[in-house]
Amino acid sequence: MPLNPAIAAVTDRIRARSATSRAAYLDRIARAAEAGPARAHLACGNQAHAYAAMAEDKDALAAGRAPNIGVVTAYNDMLSAHQPYERYPEVIRAAARAVGATAQVAGGVPAMCDGVTQGQTGMELSLFSRDVIALAAGVALSHNTYDAAIYLGVCDKIVPGLIIAAATFGHVPAVFLPAGPMTSGLPNDEKSKIRQQFATGEIGREELMKAEMASYHGPGTCTFYGTANTNQMLMEFMGLHLPGSSFVNPNTPLREALTVAGVERAAAITALGNDFRPAGHVLDEKAFVNGLVGLMATGGSTNLVLHLPAMARAAGIVLDLEDFAAISDVVPLMAKVYPNGLADVNHFHAAGGLGFMIGELLSAGLLHDDVVTIAGDGLSRYAAEPKLKDGALVWEDGPATTLNDRILRPVAAAFQPTGGLKQLAGNLGRGVMKASAVAPERLVIEAPARIFEDQEQVKAAFRAGEFTSDTVVVVRFQGPQANGMPELHSLTPVLAVLQDRGLRVALVTDGRMSGASGKVPSAIHVSPEAAVGGPLARLQDGDVLRVDAVAGTLSVIGVDLEARPVFAPDLTANRSGIGRELFEAFRRNVGAATDGAAVVV
């Protein structure tokens, strides 16, 4: 099937927009690659320091002829998704030796859990942790002793931060090894119902805690389709995972076999061999377009609207919200995974998963097949699924038909004809909505506004019974310069209760919502943010706002905003406590949400 004209047009527009920066980037990584294997240029003393603790690998490292793989790990055992990584370095070193290579843990990067920090002060460090991760990975790789890099990361900011680092060291091949989702626990819709019951006082904390522990119950990624699992999808669509590896559960024989195969692949694609695949060549314009297609087809996390532009900039590629909108217009929503449906990612994987979806999208001309991946040339390789046959890892053709059409459908019979994200623009700025989880009758909300400066004010108004009519809740001064752009996911149960009471409600904010946010229409990432004098800073209670995800508009009606003063609250409380003091330089220098809200790119 020929490439869809709209996909081709978006790709051409990105390529033209990025021509100068991409050319400079490719020149930079080409010069780095031409210098040859890094260890050849290190002094003997430098090398002795690097190999001193490597025991049986010392001779191979000193000889400099075997590929040396640097491992950048986000392991910690507070994050269930990352706990399985504890054993990975041991497995990686053994797998490397088996193919005549060596491997070293180059460094660790922080990995915070947004599930722990939701509604807490620490959430104000969450988005900035992406840039810290990129910096920490850069420090790890700066030792310049690695012929390839393996990245161990799964969750919200971790994968984007690691991609920024991998692109920056784009002359070095990069392989991402997933850990997989935890097995299914309490169904997500039951968990959501219990949270709403707690919000209204129908149940106590003991019942809530029991439900939460039944949902998040073991090693692996949370099973809803939020940012972490959207990241894993992207790594397949962009060719940085091995095919079919994203959603295999931890601590299983297939998971371990895929980890070993990833190490073997990392050793095979260095400049020392005959199949050199530097990360900067994998991360090209077509790869990012494929990632955007996957985001829309799966109804993925809104957080990637921030992360993908930042990731792309690290590779000299400039993405814009118009690219997201144009792709959303032609890519159908093929999956219903919570919060878009009742299924979790394990059910999605069992129904045919990414292999079925990639095969379908390729057949429909909605993906670029002619791309470079770590597995080889062509995205069609990712329509296959891995299996263990007599103890050996093999890839076989993935399912040609969905195995559960309530979860996963073909392009021709998709759940809806357009993708999961919608750009909104108007006299209040530019933002996005995750429309795939919103009921059609709620895609347009017009109502008087209630203005708040933080989410606790909203919860207090809810407890006081102040929401008795249709309302657009505006939570401003939540952008990256104001307080680091925290997720406001703890508002979801409150707003969902109001909606279930029959009110027409919407949220408008310059902050973020969780990648798992669902049925309440939410215009988020509104830019320019209130802290820099954006239009939200001029709104007043009672202004009539229209949030229209059909027309793609976000506006205040009948108000001359320019004639109003800019409201300027005291934000000094955002500057200290739980580490916020350390991030003042980030808040002062962060870019706009529309550009990825980044500091380092």
UniProtKB/TrEMBL annotation:
Domain Dihydroxy-acid/6-phosphogluconate dehydratase N-terminal positions: 67-380
Signal sequence region: none
Keyword check for 4Fe-4S: yes
Span of domain Dihydroxy-acid/6-phosphogluconate dehydratase C-terminal: 407-597
PROSITE patterns referenced in this protein's UniProt entry, alphabetically: ILVD_EDD_1, ILVD_EDD_2
Highest taxon listed in the record's lineage: Bacteria
InterPro entries assigned to the protein according to its UniProt record, in alphabetical order: 6-phosphgluc_deHydtase (IPR004786), Dihydro-acid_dehy_C (IPR042096), DiOHA_6PGluconate_deHydtase_CS (IPR020558), ILV_EDD_C (IPR056740), ILV_EDD_N (IPR000581), IlvD/EDD_N (IPR037237)
Pfam family of the protein (one): ILVD_EDD_N
Designated name of the protein: Phosphogluconate dehydratase
Cofactor(s) the protein needs: [4Fe-4S] cluster
HAMAP family found in the cross-reference section: Edd (MF_02094)
Sequence positions that bind [4Fe-4S] cluster: 155, 222
Cofactor detail note: Binds 1 [4Fe-4S] cluster.
Pathway: Carbohydrate metabolism; Entner-Doudoroff pathway
Record-listed E.C. numbers: 4.2.1.12
Protein function: Catalyzes the dehydration of 6-phospho-D-gluconate to 2-dehydro-3-deoxy-6-phospho-D-gluconate.
GO molecular function: 4 iron, 4 sulfur cluster binding; metal ion binding; phosphogluconate dehydratase activity
Family statement drawn from the similarity comment of this UniProt entry: Belongs to the IlvD/Edd family.
Organism: Frigidibacter albus
Cell membrane among keywords: no
Keywords: 4Fe-4S, Carbohydrate metabolism, Gluconate utilization, Iron, Iron-sulfur, Lyase, Metal-binding
GO biological process: D-gluconate metabolic process; Entner-Doudoroff pathway through 6-phosphogluconate
Reaction it catalyzes: 6-phospho-D-gluconate = 2-dehydro-3-deoxy-6-phospho-D-gluconate + H2O
A GO term from the CC aspect: cytosol
